[in-house]
Amino acid sequence: KKSEASGVMPKADIKPKSMHCAKKWSGEVENLYRFQQAGYRDEAEYKQVKQVDTVECWPETGFVKKLQRRDNTFYYYDKERECQDQDVHKVKIYVY
Known about the structure:
The protein is of the alpha+beta class and 96 residues long. The chain has one domain (18-95). It has two helices and four strands. It has helices at residues 27-37, 43-50; strands at 18-21, 66-68, 74-76, 92-95. The protein has a two-stranded antiparallel sheet with strand order 1-4. A two-stranded antiparallel ribbon has the order 2-3. A hairpin with a 5-residue loop joins strand 2 and strand 3. The longest helix is centred in the middle third of the chain and has 11 residues, at 27-37. The protein is globular.
């Protein structure tokens, strides 16, 4: 399942039009949580900064598997959910 932000991206700096916080957990919220832990808004910003076309995901769940932070260290994630209920409201969902 691809996120809506992963269409064809111009290399120009794209800015979100608006932002809201997640209310309940979903697969999309889980992946946003992982991108935001690594220091990015979302998949679109990650691809733009790191100049990559794809993000490594777990085939079973579709969750992000590995992300490279801006300081070039890596974050590795489990197949299972990592965003706990008490953290869901901290996840920002950006609208472009």
